[in-house]
Amino acid sequence: MILLSKAIHLFTVLHVIHLLIHFSLLSFPAGILNTPVVTPLSAFPSLSNPADLRLVKNNQNYYAFIANRGNGTITCLSFGNSMTNAPTELYTYTVAGAGSLTDIDLSMTCSPPVAFLSDALTGDITKYYSHQD
What we know:
The protein is an all-beta fold and 133 residues long. The chain is 0% helix and 59% strand. It has strands spanning 2-4, 7-11, 15-17, 20-28, 37-44, 50-58, 61-68, 73-80, 88-94, 101-107, 114-119, 125-129. The strands form three sheets. Strands 1, 2, 3, 4 and 5 form a five-stranded antiparallel sheet that branches. The protein has a four-stranded antiparallel sheet with strand order 6-7-8-9, with no helix packed on it. Strands 10-11-12 form a three-stranded antiparallel sheet, with no helix packed on it. The radius of gyration is 15 Å and the shape is globular.
């Protein structure tokens, strides 16, 4: 959940339609206790049974990092400078040896940022970071 200028934005659980994963954005312009406005977003064929999603803001831009349970990958989506923008896929990264990623946690307080991934199949916790800024 992300709070942007008194409006709250939340992503629904991902659902499958015709083997593509779709997102819906729930906006709560009148607050979390009121009925949300639902906006369907793009489909992303690279997602495979997504299990966890982390939203981060970096340099005024918003990103979603998704742990894919079905294929052991991380997918990164960019929303640009507003969570209400349609996301675009930046990359999908295959985690070596991963079998079934179930969780992702991302720390932006480190340089470079660090993600920790858990794998239900292997029981491993993996530390992931990028050398790119």
